[in-house]
Amino acid sequence: METLRRSLSRWKKYHIKVHLADEDLLLPLTVRPTDTMMDLRAHLVREGVTSWKKTFFYNARVIEEHETVKEAKIQNGSVLLLISDK
């Protein structure tokens, strides 16, 4: 049963939003639970947004680069905050 659940999770998709604080912009993204923050950065680059020297936050917590969407407990409809490092 666990193997089935894991195999189905790769087809699961979350519709989240990334709030770019510096530009006052809310960008919709479709991600998978297995995507890391580096994958999210690649999605943003495809949208024309640079995320260099910026940090992701979710529920007032910094999300590390290697963390997956699932590990960070990000759910469908969540909003991530992307803030420039100062």
UniProtKB/TrEMBL annotation:
Coiled coil: none annotated. It holds the Pfam family ubiquitin. SUPFAM superfamilies: Ubiquitin-like (SSF54236). Residues 14-86 form the Ubiquitin-like domain. This is TINCR ubiquitin domain containing. It comes from Podarcis muralis (Wall lizard). The lineage of its organism: Eukaryota, Metazoa, Chordata, Craniata, Vertebrata.
